[in-house]
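Instructor's aside before we start: the two examples that follow are unrelated to each other. I chose them only because their records fit on one page, so don't look for a connection. First example below.
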Amino acid sequence: MSEPLPDGALLWAWRHPRAEGAQGRCIGRTDLHVDPRRAKRLAHRVRQAARRHGLPRVVWTSPLRRCADVGRWLRRWGWEHRIDAALMEADFGAWEGLGWEGIPREEVDAWCADFAAARPGGGESLRQVLARAAAWTPPAGAPALLVTHGGWMLARRWVAMHAQAPQLPTEWPRAPGHGCLWRLERVRVEWRE
């Protein structure tokens, strides 16, 4: 399930496997369990891609279990596993882990009205997530293999293609599927937070 992008892509980013208990809930930094078989399957796919394309045997992951468990499998197989909090999903503050129906409608409406700058649940604004994704750089310009989150992947792609944050929720694209690979290029536009 790879999305075709130019061969010069530097970041090979996989979205973590589907987490247990996420359905219908606001999940950003809530640390949910992933079935070990799902984590192992994704680790196999990462390993196969690295072999096929001559990529380094180093994987960067978010510290959240749904990403880090994949890195732990790779570490068992002789890989280097680096954990970086900059690869985490957005922080939804007080909304974390709540069912969407339990979040007051007026709070969701206020977020949508100021989509780029509002801090849902008192957490992180979209501008902050975009700036964090834009700032992440692989060491020494080498290709980097990541297991990260859908929101981080969307943010990284957004800043590679746009000079500023989206103003409306309808401008924000859909997240990649669980386990999907996106090959992402360096941020080329000048990003303004």
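Example two begins here.
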Amino acid sequence: MKERYVGIDLAKRTMEVCLVSDGAQIERHGLKTDAEGRRRLCGLLSRTDTVGFEVCAYATMLARQLIREVGCTVHLLNPGQLQVIWKSAKKTDREDALKLAKMLQRFPVEELPAVPLTSEAEEDARYSVSTAQYLKGKRVAAINRLHALYVRDGIVEVTKKDLATGKNREKTMAALPEKLQVYAKYLQEELALLEQQLEEVQGALEEKTRENELAPYVMSIPGVGLGIAGVLLAYLGDGSRFSHAKEVANYAGFTPRVDCSGETERYGHISKRTFCRAIRSVVLEGVWAMARSGSGGRLRVKYNSLSERMSKKKSAVAIARKMVSLAWLLMTRRELYRDAQEAALRKKFAFYKIKFEGWGSAA
């Protein structure tokens, strides 16, 4: 059977399928994305086909179905790097599917802007992380709105920190006039529900992290607790899809802007272009936690050194890059952070209820 290259342009309810064979024969199909449409797609494909489509909301689900039911090769492609599509003068779903098929035909696998297919466990953990971040954002918005009620009535001595817990919110509400207490009650009920949901989601993520055999290695880094380790493991997996620490730094958005032309080389500020915003935010939290503590080993020494010649914020970003790279290195080598004290680690693991038997391994 001849090898075919299949480009699929996915929309919410429909998909355009373009099959290109080595003889330049082109076959097109317009299908729906429902269960029947996906069944028909599986019937069109064979095990020797190479399939590619852009990452979208249900791309991972479709990829798993094609691999499971057809056994073909599937490439998930990063839409942000498909200039052949978004710079095209003629852009339709049919043309996009054809461009994807021809790109699979012309370029070797290592040159494709491919996104690794995550495992179901990683996908579940990522959904927990994104849900937790969504709930945190809603909680912050509700606290800001509640605080605005106090400011509106001239009660400026009540700060947002005073409204961080349910007990404090109940105490301070008495300072509001009766007409505003009605609205404050609505917001307090919303906050109570959000905090309950957030606790459940974070608890589920922490439980998954405890069961991950790589968690102790990542948590041996100073400033990294169970929550930060959960995010790192959710998005980095076991680290096998990255070949170098620089790839991990780029994935998390910790690489500088580069402008090189002729003999001129300029390295600018951190680009902040990231495939994973979740890692960037939580790792910076870990850096600040390490900075507040009295330990940290070489990471702390480096942070102090950088802080003497640049701002603390820039120093934290530089250390965050090192922390992400170090996390990848430790999980791939299955080793503990070299500067960590065993007694302190045992105490830390006991606090987070982490089981670990590999004492004596350090990197």
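The first helix runs from residue 35 to 44.
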